[in-house]
Amino acid sequence: MTVSFLAEGRELVLPVAPMPIGWGAGKQISTVAINGVGDVPIPGDPADHEETLYCLLPAHEYPFLAPGAEADPYQYIQTLRRWAEEKVVVRYIAEDVINTLVLISEVTWREQDGTGDVYATIYLRRHVSPEAVTTRVNTQTGNAGRTEPEEESQTVQSYTVVSGDCLSVICRRYYGSGTAVWYNALARYNGIKNPHLIFPGQVLSIPPASQLGVSG
Fold first, then answer.
1. From CA 7, how far away is CA 11, in angstroms rounded?
2. The pLDDT value given to residue 76
3. What is the pLDDT of residues 37-82, one digit of tens each?
4. Are residues 23 and 114 in the same domain?
5. Rounded distance, CA 136 to CA 101, Å?
6. Fewer Cβ in 10 A, N or C end of the chain?
């Protein structure tokens, strides 16, 4: 499994996938009292979540290194440390298992066996995108839910990527679904080789769903 961080238009692939890896999902729940209905639970912002990665950053060309990895542990430490100090929002990706925005709250490291290899600990915390999410409540039925995606445009639109964006979020915004089949199709349409790597200022063409050739 390949584990990487995306930020500032670059991908930092960890040379050895940390084990174990994991993440959590959930939402904060608030309750609204509605006359004639009672208390209605309403999902709010994503719940806070933190995770710790224990990483080996080798100083030698071992056969188990991830493709493209470099045997220079302090190159990784320098980048991770700067992202932590500057509070850069990064995207944490573990192939098709994890894909989420995080802040690196702290990075610690040490050499311990005389090989020059570095053992690093990376502390991650969920970052909630400032993108507004509208929730509506029907005061007669008490039903709550998100607003529906806007009606599909029949022309090709342009979208300029901003910090924290990813193709799955963009697809959810324009097509109502951010699953892999959609963001991979949008990547192919725009000639993007790595669908997980886009950068602020990049201009994407957003065609009608029918031109992507996918559904569901």
1. 7
2. 94
3. 666 555 555 567 889 999 999 999 999 988 878 889 999 999 999 9
4. yes
5. 25
6. C
First to last CA, the chain: 27
Closest CA to 106 of 88, 126, 81, 78: 81
Residue from 123, 114, 118, 18 nearest 75 by CA:
118
Per-residue pLDDT at 117 exceeds 80: yes
On the question of pLDDT at 132 being above 50, the answer is: no
Check whether residue 114 and residue 31 sit in a common domain: yes
Number of domains in the chain: 2
What number of residues does the chain have?
216
Q: What would the mean pLDDT of 161-172 be, rounded to a whole number?
A: 81
State the CB neighbour count (10 A cutoff) for residue 66. Answer: 14
| pLDDT at residue 86, rounded to an integer | 92
Separation of alpha carbons 82 and 63, rounded Å: 29
Among 69, 94, 126, residue at a domain's last position: 126
β-strand partners of 166:
none
What predicted TM-score, i.e. pTM, was given to this entire model?
Answer: 0.59
Same domain for 55 and 106, yes or no, is yes
For residue 109, how far is the Cα from the chain centroid? 24
Task: State the residue range of the domain holding 194.
Answer: 150-212
* Amino acid in the structure at residue 134: T
How are beta strands 118-126 and 98-110 bridged, if at all?
A: antiparallel
* Encoded amino acid at 78, one letter: Q
What is the identity of the amino acid at 37?
V
